[in-house]
Amino acid sequence: MTQKARLEEVRWHGRGGQGAVLGASILGSAAALYEGKYAVSFPSFGAERRGAPVQAFTRIADQVIRTRSQIYHPTRIIVLDDTLFGVVDITDGAQAGATVLVNTRRSISELDIPAGLNVVLLDASAIAQEIIGVGIVNTTMLGALAGATNLVGLDAIKKAIADALPEKIAGRNIAAAEAAYWEVKGG
Amino acid sequence: MAKRVGLEVSVAVGDAAKLADVDVVAAYPITPQTHIVEHLAELVANGELRAAYIPVESEHSAMSACLGASAVGARTFTATASQGLELMHEVLYVASALRLPIVMAVVNRALSAPISIWCDHSDAMAVRDSGWIQMFVENGQEAVDNVICAFRIGEDRRVLLPVMIHLDGFSLSHVIEPIILPEQSEVARFLPPYDPPLPLDPEKPVTVGAFAPPFIYTEVKWAQEMTLEGAKEVILECWREFANTFGRHYSPVESYRTEGAKVLLMTMGSLSETAMVAVDKMRDEGKEVGLIKLRLWRPFPFAELRQAVRDAEVLIVLDRALSFGGPGGPVCSEVKAALYREARRPEVVGFVGGLGGRDISMADFEEMVNQGIKLAEAGSEREFEIFGVRE
Asked: What are the residue boundaries of the structural domains of chain B, listed by start?
């Protein structure tokens, strides 16, 4: 069996403590457990510190995923913290037309993003602050991702959040994801 | 029914030890193995696993505690990596010579110095001759399945040897992927309780690990060698039985798209999966390239290896360790030795790469194949090539 079908490679950018690794994992679970796809997720391999720039990755495909090398040419880029622009090369290696989903209050002209990419901006921090009560945006951004792309559906995201988080906080995180989904959809 | 769940491979390895219903875990945390023993400590602390968790002050003590536990008949598990494995080095030889079926997950990591927390196989190669059964897994499912198999193999009365399951640090241990965890009841049927022939028991005293003067030492070592070599039959039997029960097949040497292949790549560990994708691409381009994956490292599967490579013209072996001042990669050097007496054998080209976590991508494997073919044709004065080094 060869892997001719599209391999989705998602790169998450955040700062240590913002939940990029968990976000990457929930995305993988949503695709693999609730949409019948195959997925793997992994952190950037190394020592990480709270507040320092971190990356996490999710690979999603319709077939068994065998590639275990790092991700060099992402098809989707999720940015949890816009202060990372100028600190790390956010769009490094991005495939043409790749989705760049950014949590920001700034406008596209204020962010350094090369042409040819599909940029989606939203103020996920505000949504998370209002609905969850803290500015941790990984789950909110997952809802936005479901709204902005056909990568994974909102239902799968909601179920995977429910699996991953303690009952006490899962509900609010799901609500935040849903709010972001509709904000991006323009509903 | 066992179902597919998304799990970090380290956590799944801990769950596999739990499914095997281990009695004792003695371990010391070290990156990138920490998540395995953390998870086990948690399972014991919250009552999900009825076992003694012995926190120790070093890996030397961890393996020493494992010796004692296994000697009284407890099913014993531990995990380590890199410098931790080195620190338990001398005790490893005692475990195998005392015929104690301890199971250890080794999350492969480069040896210092300079300090590297990332993967290569230098830790595994440093314990190559320790008398343990050793295998390398390429994904999380294989790790889970083979931790369970390891207890059945090691505890078999025909074997009674410790088993190391090698899994690549980070690129395997820290990946979250879909894994099927078997049901506890299925595992219990597959893996009977450990029934040691001569446990340490104050009621029936025995001496274990006695002094051996020259008149008997050689015989003990020969018996150990015969047992390890003979363990291959038990390993094959276990894997057959595992396939019958759980539907997943394992073999000592695995061939991937080797039919009619003039050129074969050979890998061990998680890089095998990336190499498979590279082989797919090259096959699609009409190149006659296949892949050999070496899973069983000790006992070395001589017959299976010879059979797997006999029709190839070039065999390109990738090692993730370096034997300084020697023949390059330990795996390649053993492959060459295994083929020495064969009338028909491929030209063997050895690469050393992927050291200290250096990524090997699909494109790198293609490059390695292209370089390997050229080297096989032109010949080289070097014993091996180092892949992707900046000079």
From this structure: 3-246, 253-386
Interchain CB distance below 8 Å, A66 and B276: yes
CB contacts of B367 in chain A (<8 Å) are none
SS3 B231: helix
C-beta atoms of B174 and A43 within 8 A: yes
Segments of B188-247 assigned E as strands: none
pLDDT tens track, chain A, 187 positions: 344 468 999 999 999 989 999 999 999 999 998 999 999 999 887 767 788 999 999 999 999 899 888 899 999 999 999 999 999 999 999 999 999 999 999 999 999 899 999 999 999 999 999 999 999 999 999 999 999 999 999 999 999 999 999 999 999 999 999 999 999 998 5
Pick the CATH number of B3-246 from 3.30.450.20, 3.20.10.10, 3.40.50.970, 3.40.50.880: 3.40.50.970
Min Cα–Cα distance to chain B from A110, Å: 35
Can you tell me the ipTM of this complex?
0.86
Classify residue A4 as exposed, middle or buried by CB count within 10 Å of its CB (0-12, 13-18, 19+).
exposed
Does CATH place domain B253-386 in 3.40.50.920? yes
Cβ <8 Å between B274 and A32: no
**Of residues A24, A25, A47, nearest to B117 (C-beta):** A47
Asked whether the beta carbons of B329 and B352 are under 8 A apart, the reply is: yes
Task: Choose the closest CB to A2 out of B117, B171, B280.
Answer: B280
Under DSSP, the state recorded for A110 is: G
Q: What are phi and psi of A117, to 5 degrees?
A: -115, 155
Selecting from B171, B176, B274 the residue whose C-beta is nearest the C-beta of A28 gives: B176
CB contact under 8 A, B175 and A41: yes
Candidates A2, A66, A34, A56; CA nearest to A151 is: A34
Which residue in chain A has the smallest CA separation from B119? A45
Report the residue of A25, A37, A45 to disrupt the B interface, i.e. the one with the largest count of B CBs within 10 Å: A45
DSSP state, B74?
-
pTM (2 d.p.): 0.94
